[in-house]
Each structure stands twice: as structure tokens, then as C-alpha cells.
Design goal:
Layout lengths: L11 H35 L8 E6 L6 H8 L12 H9 L4 E9 L3 E8 L2 E5 L6 E4 L4 E3 L12 E3 L5 H16 L5 E6 L4 E6 L4 E6 L2 H21 L7 E5 L6 E5 L2 E5 L5
Parallel strand pairs: 1-3, 4-7, 7-8, 10-11
Antiparallel strand pairs: 2-3, 4-5, 5-6, 8-9, 9-10, 11-12, 12-13
């Protein structure tokens, strides 16, 4: 007779679990080591002198800036290498340079920044005469040295800074209408109370009153259509105008050189 024995090995599963845990731990340690190596390598690459920014190429509008002014105003504000430099901050640094309205900055591998500059195009002085501020074609106010202007014979606009676009738009609307009488705007002001006032070349002034462009233009057209006839009544030309007040409902008050009158029937 033979005896059969059945032997159960109870420790085998526990050993298998230990092996799995050891394998997992080894994999985690290996992954951490690889990541650390990659991090160290990347840190070394990003800070290696070969990737330092060694040149900046500038193109576009550079009439009012040169290499010396750009280096003095921008380079101290640039930090990091080719890979780490903050392009947003670099853009702001260039746009803080006088006369620069917009800057487009991009990387050029391996060690260069390329910058396209767009300067302000001044169309008028802005604010008080003591302010060194101008208005560009977009109606934006900016600061600049008046001695660097290509044309110093610019009109003078003023008003709240938030209304610079509207003031410039009103100037462009009024100028052609008054030019029909050979009258040219030297200055245009929007007062704090919302009233418009124009100063003409030669010293004449016009109180335009309150309102939007349509309302003000209606009053100016009334003046432009009748001023020549009113002036002729008194032996004067339209250019003899010294002042006009358009704030009257059915007409306007005006002063001609040597003559003063109020004509409320001059709407036609």
C-alpha cells in the first residue's frame, strides 16, 4: 500500500507579492532617476552659454531710435536665455521705449531675438502746452520729445485722455467744413463739461457747444453756409471772423473784425 501526501506550500504567494513590490519599487526609482537626469540635462542646456541671447535684430520703424537708445532701454530688462526669455516682457520692454507704439518679438535659433518695431505717427499735440504729449493716427496719447518731431506745425487737441479718439475724430470732421471758408483749425478742446471749442489759425475762436459729432456738425454747417453772406453785409470776408458762438438754438452770435452783431435769422 502506498501513501500519498498532499503538501501545501503557504509561503509562495507572499514571496510573489514581495517580488512584485520590489519590481514596482525598482521601476519607480529608475523612473525618478531618469526624470532627475533629464531635468539636470535640461537645466544645463537652458543655461549653457551657447544659448545665451547674443544678438537682437531690429527692423521696421526706427526713425526716432537707434542701437544705443534701444540697448540702454531694453537690454537691462531682458532676462534668461534663448529658451527662457519671456517674450511678453520683452515686448513690453520695447514698447516702453519712446516713440514705439508696437513691438513684435520672436526667437531665432539658436541665440537671437528678432524684433519688428512700429512707431507712433503724430498728428497733433495733446493736453496742456507744458505736457510733452502727442496724439497718433489712432487717437492714442503718447509721450515724446517735441524736438524730435519731423513736423512741428501740428494742431493742438485737448480734453480728457479717455476721449482722445473722439477729439481726433471731431477734428477730422470739422476741418473740411471750415476749410470751405478758408478757415483752419489750430486747436480743438473738449472741456470737462462736454462742450467743444475750436481755435482757428489767425486767432479766431468758435464755441461749438455740446453734443455728438452729428449735432456739432449741424451747427458748423449752419455757420459755413451763411457766414460769407453775413460777412458781406458788413463789408467783410469770412476770414475777418474773430469769434462765433454756435450755442444759440436758432442762430449764432459772431464777431467780425471791426463789427459785432447777433443774427438769429442766419440759419438760411
Amino acid at each position: 500500500m502506498s501513501n500519498r501526501y498532499s503538501i501545501r506550500h503557504e509561503e509562495a504567494p507572499e514571496l510573489a507579492l514581495d517580488v512584485r513590490l520590489m519590481n514596482i519599487t525598482s521601476m519607480l526609482l529608475l523612473s525618478a532617476l531618469v526624470l532627475a537626469s533629464v531635468g539636470v540635462t535640461l537645466w544645463w542646456v537652458l543655461r549653457h552659454p551657447v544659448f545665451a541671447i547674443n544678438a537682437i535684430t531690429v527692423s521696421g520703424d526706427v526713425r526716432h531710435n537707434n542701437e544705443v537708445t534701444l540697448r540702454a532701454n531694453v537690454v537691462p530688462r531682458l532676462q534668461g536665455s534663448f529658451f527662457t526669455v519671456d517674450l511678453v516682457q520683452a515686448k513690453k520692454a520695447f514698447e516702453n521705449v519712446p516713440w514705439v507704439r508696437q513691438a513684435l518679438v520672436r526667437r531665432e535659433f539658436p541665440d537671437r531675438l528678432s524684433v519688428d518695431l512700429y512707431e507712433h505717427e503724430p498728428v497733433a499735440y495733446w493736453g496742456n502746452e507744458s505736457d510733452s504729449r502727442l496724439v497718433n493716427r489712432q487717437g492714442e496719447v503718447f509721450s515724446a520729445n517735441f524736438g524730435e518731431l519731423d513736423d512741428e506745425n501740428l494742431p493742438h487737441l485737448s480734453g480728457p485722455d479717455t476721449e482722445s479718439v473722439n477729439v481726433l475724430r471731431m477734428f477730422h470732421a470739422l476741418s473740411p467744413e471750415l476749410s470751405k471758408l478758408d478757415l483752419h483749425i489750430q486747436g480743438l478742446e473738449l472741456t470737462g463739461r462736454g462742450s467743444w471749442r475750436a481755435q482757428l489759425k489767425g486767432g479766431a475762436s468758435i464755441e461749438l457747444g455740446r453734443g455728438n459729432e452729428t449735432e456739432v456738425m449741424a451747427r458748423v454747417q449752419r455757420l459755413s453756409q451763411t457766414l460769407a453772406q453775413v460777412s458781406q453785409r458788413y463789408g467783410r470776408q469770412a476770414q475777418a471772423l474773430e469769434s462765433a458762438d454756435l450755442r444759440h438754438v436758432n442762430g449764432y452770435a459772431l464777431r467780425l473784425r471791426g463789427v459785432s452783431t447777433l443774427d438769429s435769422t442766419a440759419t438760411r
